[in-house]
Amino acid sequence: MTEHTTRRYNDGEVLSGVQRRRRWTPEEKVRIVEETYLPGMSVSLVARRHGIGAGQLFTWRRLMAQGALTAAGAGEEVVPASEYRALQAQVNELQRLLGKKTMEAEILREAVSRAAGPKKTAVALDLVAGGRSMTAVADAIGISRQHLSAMHNRPPPKPRGRPPLPDAELVADIRMLVADLPTYGYRRVHALLRRQAREAGRAAPNPKRVYRVMKVHGLLLQPHSGKGEERRHDGRVSVDRRNTRWCSDALEIGCDNGEKVRVAFALDCCDREAMGHVATNGGITAEDVRDLMVATVEHRFGPVNRLAEPIEWLTDNGSPYVAGDTRRFACDIGLVPRTTPVSSPQSNGMAEAFVRTLKRDYVRVNPTPDARTVIEQLPVWLTHYNEVHPHKALGYRSPREYIMQTREAPSGI
């Protein structure tokens, strides 16, 4: 028989060995959910007592509440969600087929009515060129038929500027140079062509022309593959009201004995308070992120089934955050998932700045002998950050000081 042990820390659990998944009966689920409504109990506490995920228990509780309210309000049996979705899909398809042509005609008519005179003429000319009747097009768009006929039958405009020079001779000269000097770019190739032209007593080609010809014929050098410029970010991560946008990210802390501690956290983008965290010496999973969501919601609003107002949940594109189950769970409890563009950490700059602050001001100046010590110290560090650590954007006040001085009830008390 395979032996395994379980070691529990304050904020994490380390499992070794094979664990069998527990199957809960409906009666057990009802009993566990009813415990969450008892005085002094919370979803997180009941979940830890029974050894299940807080996100899973939160989902059971919400589904039970929704089913009871729906049946009582309608006075009828509750229709299965799958059957309702199938019927709704059929209705949507019928509506789409019925109104498609009508909506297209209305959109086209409105677009033409908003267009100015020159734009109307261009649209009319395209329709006439496609074989439409000139009279019908003029009447439908609302322009003069005589003007449309004159524009349609006018002679082509005369070419402007000098005619382009033939490129065959230039291409041959460039190919000859590139065959002997394959590392030369268009600047050095142009310098050699200019030298040859000076020796032959003819006009030298323009460098822009050399670049165009080499680009058309695939003779340019491959672009440099080194580090590119920083991605520009013109948006704003911070907000002016609390509980409008929350951001989350994860970081890794190395221990002296070689162990790694992975931490995921959540911040309010207004008061910068660290509202919750999960820590483990394994990898951050989608279930850990869902538990973090539950802990953050309970930290701010207590044991509620769904947020009264939607709150944005800003993260990067890490696999635990973009997982389908995580995004669906976030929507179920009232969070609105928002992800940053690829390769743009600036778009989640507040979370990135918190990672730097945590490592600089806490991890580097405290002993980190092993994972257990780090996980035990994390609550102390975050409490100090919330209550003592000054923040420039908050007028060099701590998050809790900012909350108190702006006359808003601080959370997590």
TrEMBL record:
Integrase catalytic domain location: 219-407
One GO biological process term: DNA transposition
Entry GO MF terms: sequence-specific DNA binding; transposase activity
One Pfam family from the record: HTH_21
NCBIfam families linked to this entry: transpos_IS3
Name of the molecule in the record: IS3 family transposase
Organism: Sphingomonas hengshuiensis
